[in-house]
Amino acid sequence: MLNPIKTRLTVLIVGLACLGIGVLFASTLEWTPATLALQDGTASAPTTHASLRETGNAFIEIAESVTPAVVSIRGQQRVTQREMMPDLGPFERFFQFPEDENHEQIPDEMFRRSGGSGVIIREDGYILTNNHVVDGMMELEVVLNDRRAYDAEVVGADPSTDIAVIKIDADDLPVAQLATDDGVQVGEWVLALGNPLGLDFTMTAGIVSAIGRGNLQIIDRGENPYAIENFIQTDAAINPGNSGGPLVDIDGRVIGINTAIASRTGVYQGYGFAVPISIARRVAEQLIETGQVQRAVLGVQIQAVTPLDQEALELPSIAGVRIDGFTDLPGQENPAREAGLELQDVVLEVAGREVETPSELQEAIAFHQPGDVVELVVWRDGDRRNVRVKLGERPANAVAPTLASEDEGPAPDESEVHESALGMDVQDLTPAMRRTLVQRLNLSSASIPQGVYIRDIQSLGAADDAGIQQGGILTQVGDRRVTNVAEYQAAVAELEPGQIVYLRIYYPQGDSQLFRALRVPN
Known about the structure:
six-stranded antiparallel barrel; 23% helix; alpha+beta; 27 strands
């Protein structure tokens, strides 16, 4: 009988011997796995170097092809005395800039040199830039990359998109290629070209940091209530003087017009913003054709959908734009009202295009023609509905509704102020307070509804979280109309902790009514 221990030992020795012979044989055939050879990193270096070289060559090609179409725009702008003074921050009160040596006051208005950038879009001298670059500028001059200089004239400008077109008397000019789609993606390489800080024809590189940036107040909505803010955000360095220059992709196509920076110092601090070429192109085409922009409107006040809206309205997702109110369009009927749209409808689609933000809805509507009929998909009563709307025309010289400041509200009177569980202090709107509003804001008494006056908002309370501001007249809590504090308190008493309720508020300053969703505190 065989000894089991000896048998196992023999098998082990034979196995080890076979393994050793196999390794020696494999080494003679150079079968060493490639992954082991790369462990020291030396084999991957040529590949990495080649990739960087390829990217660098792409940047060089873009600089060579696009820079000739970039221009420097120069001129003089009228400015106020205050705008010419240095910003001394908290130390400003220790300095004085009184009279000159002849004891004459500095003029209220002066002129200063100003400038920006632009990009040639047609061989016959049409140049795309920002409205704020040429607004108020005199003796407009354009300098090309080859140092030729031309006088220029403004063809037209659209403050609501901050786009302008100027023209020089020249032919056979180099032209930048404009992108033909909206396929910009977060993370892709981009390059910004322009004339920052007096450094003419500079190019910087970065990536697209975000798209669809809105509600940045880059464009003054007080003067431009129909402003469209749907910016491309980039970390490519943009500085004063870059405005109006092109933002291009890795193929050298213009995807945006550099417009603004996010900065506390006035110079680059990490992020810049560009108007998408889809907007800039359509504005430029109208300006070149007619000298002005004709824009369609829906006639509504809108708000982005919030998580509270989704829960209260049973929306499938936190997307879409909620109708908050209707705007008057002088000389024409309100298109939204005529089509049967209702307050708290949520617009999900315009002409087959999904809209998720107010900026997207504004852009989708704005570049239709007045009188066009578009089909909307809206969410109402827990279901999708199709609504056809004949669009109106944007009124000239419109002024945006604004909320009343503390100084513009009625002065306190004998009416008692009551604290509310909803995080705001309210009081009855007395005849004396109503008269004050009429006088201060030049309103008719009939336009001011019955309700309770919002005297103050408690910091970090429910009303504060909902974005409600003081100075409004609260007219409705949920489904209940309220005309005085007693009715308001009765309506609030019926609310359940955690419940979402909509408050309807009239703001006299803007002569507008808004809805705000609020969660009742526990």
